[in-house]
Amino acid sequence: MACNIFYFLQSYVIILTSGGMEEEKSRIFIISEVFKCQWESKGVSFLEQVYPPSMDKVTREIEKNVKKNKDLSKIYEVYKSVLAVQLQYMDRIEKTISIEADPDELKDLLRNGTFILSGYTLNMEGKLYKELVQAICEAIKEASAEAPDNLLNLHTAEEFTEGANLETFIKDIAKLNKQDLQDYLERTEMDQRTGLDSEVLSFVLVMALSTFYSVYMKKIRENIDFTLWRKGHCPVCGQVASFARHRGEDGARVLLCWLCHAEWVFPRIECPYCGNKEQKKLRFFYLPGEKARQVHVCEVCNKYLKTVDGKALERDVLLDVEAIACGYLDDLAEKEGYKRPDDMTQMH
After folding, report:
1. How far is residue 224 from each of residues 3, 97, 122, 145, 230, measured CA to CA in Å?
2. pTM (two decimals)
3. What beta strand segments (E) does the chain contain?
4. What is the pLDDT of residues 212-225, one digit of tens each?
5. Are 134 and 154 in contact (CB under 8 A)?
6. 8 A C-beta contact, residue 6 and residue 327
7. Are 243 and 319 in contact (CB under 8 A)?
8. Among residues 271, 239, 256, which one has the least CA distance to residue 338?
């Protein structure tokens, strides 16, 4: 599945509120710099952020961002409500998921440049997935009064009939990218039968899937770390990174998987999408006064990567929370002619 979870969240809230974030000024002055880096990570292993985060830490981070931009408050309310449900279900999901390979086999996969789920299957228990979808719908409705009432009836759709039908549905949607998922929902008329916009449907389905993938990643991480991995897509599920941070302590670039929340170090002077290492064709830009929130671009493949600089920000942040605050960078990058990496996602 190839879709940007943070973009999904913003789009969904805008649909509900028929407004959303304040429009950008018609002309944006961009500070552009050639990417110059005097150093890189020397292979030293640092402990990455551990997923899932505590709700206390999430709340503190959100409060800091909302103080700067009150337009984000509705988006964050939905995010917090959905996250609370996901955290609630993770322990139950963990009991249903097992790792088929031993640590040495997993390390061999990473050493050979193969993401783990390309060789193994993540089985999702249909009944638990259905229950999670229902809980997410209820959380969204509680967090947003504008949310459609039909959300509360989604679990009654024929796709959620327990048994082979539900298992097939889960396997089918787990293979699709964002646009293909929405097309699938429209082609099967699920959107019409449920009375829900296909993008709203997609958001709910992806949030539930992400919870299962995150539990799987957590179990993998308990057996191995990801220091052997130097690809632009996730070492666990194969999804292409769409957000990154530069660690405050050493400046190393850490990529984030939007689906399973794995994090791994990737060279700064290299495009994670096409592998370009020519320094003159790698650059970044940002809005005046927002140096910590950057758009890193490659002039070879024309893709961009949203990045938060922990050193400039003078603190490390929760990437999920920060990615929502950086949503405006998508518009900024696309106005400059760069493209999302979504269509380059690895499939499994």
Report:
1. 26, 17, 18, 43, 15
2. 0.85
3. 31-34, 243-246, 253-256, 263-265, 282-286, 293-298, 304-309
4. 999 999 999 999 99
5. yes
6. yes
7. yes
8. 271
